[in-house]
Amino acid sequence: MSRNPIQIVDFAPFLDGSAKQQVADRVLASFKSAGFVYLTNFGLSNEEVQEMFGWSKRFFSLPPSTKMLAPHPESGTHHRGYSYPCQEKVIQYSESGDSFTVAPPSMKESFDVGHEDNDIMPNIWLPEGVLPGFNEACLAFYWKCYEVEKNILRALALGFGLEQEWFLRYHETANCQLRLHHYPSIPLESLETNKLTRIPGHTDFDTLTFLFQGDIGGLEVEDPNEPGKFVAVPPVPNSIVLNAGDFLRRWSNGTIRSTVHRVVAPPGVETKDGMLPARYSMPYFCAPDMSMIIDSIPGTWSADQPKKYEPVSVKEYVMKRFAANY
User: Fold this and answer.
1) Could you tell me where the beta strands, DSSP code E, fall in 261-307?
2) Nearest by Cα to 180 from 239, 137, 232
3) 208 pairs with which residues across the strands?
4) How many of the other CB atoms lie within 10 Å of CB of 22?
5) φ and ψ at residue 53, rounded to 5 degrees
6) Model confidence band, residue 193 (pLDDT cutoffs 50, 70, 90)
7) Residue 1: its pLDDT value, please?
8) CB-side neighbour CA atoms (13 Å) of 120
9) What is the DSSP string of 88-135?
10) Residue 181: is it exposed, middle or buried by C-beta count within 10 angstroms (0-12/13-18/19+)?
């Protein structure tokens, strides 16, 4: 992968129908080889994305005591609201899922949003009047991302040789999470000496994640062909970075990669008095419906290539992973 950077795929020919299968094949091939792919022309305008970044910056500029009016609960199984810097642990599970390691403190703060009808994880908002328009902006962007998610799932289905709506039947309840991230300005020395991290190496545990990077880089992915070596994933204008999660790796019977990634000091970044600039990003996490039992995707197993994983309950799998993070 270090010799072949993550592919940039123009998603427009899928959306307009002019080359659906070709785009689907490229996305799936990138997932199999690298676990990551850039998508351009994915269905949201730059203006819509930048408007949401503006709301994110306004939220994180509030005083800490104000942000704590929408606190993330102590339990990770209610993954909503505001998490202060270093509150969330970063957990990396083994491939079997039977063991995990805990990384050093992660110097970021975040705000998590789902849909308003989620009884398992209701949203946690600031009191009315504290930041007028913020709730509505988050929810509007969330549902725009859900439309993008559905089209990506359609492309994946075609890539696997399935009927286009196949994955959507497992993602009907929008069991998703929009997360606003702010990485405060910190001394570069604190990262170089491993006193702190921005986000240490980890994999996501969902079906898919797509990331709006902002202007400041730092995202890196592990080269699957050279474990321990990381490759920069710099911001590409008007794109999202799409990656497969552990759930999709399991669902695909191991044919898709869920690649370790992290956030570090951007290469060549200019510091002022040794301080790294602040960084903002917005990941959107997509998971199957909680009620589903997931088994290997048709075509990913056979007598010669048997199933590697037992069927799994989405709710049990997801809640176990959430609980470990707090």
Assistant:
1) 261-263, 279-286, 293-294
2) 137
3) 244, 286
4) 13
5) -60, -35
6) confident
7) 45
8) 17
9) S--EEE-TTSS-EEEPSPB--EEEEE--TT-SSS----PPTTSSTTHH
10) buried
The number of CA neighbours under 13 Å toward the Cβ of 18 is 5
User: How far is the C-alpha of 140 from the C-alpha of 209, rounded, in Å?
Assistant: 18
Report the run of H or E that residue 141 belongs to, with start and end.
Answer: helix 134-159
The answer to whether residues 162 and 298 touch, using CB atoms and an 8 Å cutoff, is: yes
Element housing 320 (H / E): helix 314-324
**Dihedral angle of Cα 288, 49, 10, 167, to the nearest 10 degrees:** 10
Nearest to 280, CA basis, from 49, 2, 101: 49
The pairing of strands 176-183 and 230-232 is unpaired
> Which of 32-41, 169-178, 206-215, 270-279 comes out lowest in average pLDDT?
270-279
Average pLDDT for residues 125-144, to the nearest whole number? 97
Contact predicate 245/208, CB 8 Å: yes
For residue 170, the 8-state DSSP code is: G
The model's pLDDT over 258-297, given as tens digits with 9 standing for 90+, comes to: 999 898 888 777 677 888 889 999 999 999 988 899 899 9
Locate 262 and state its tokens.
């992290």
Paired tokens of 123: 């949203």
Cα–Cα distance for residue pair 251/73, rounded to 1 Å: 30
Contact (CB, 8 A) for 247 and 253: no
Q: What is the pTM of this model?
A: 0.90
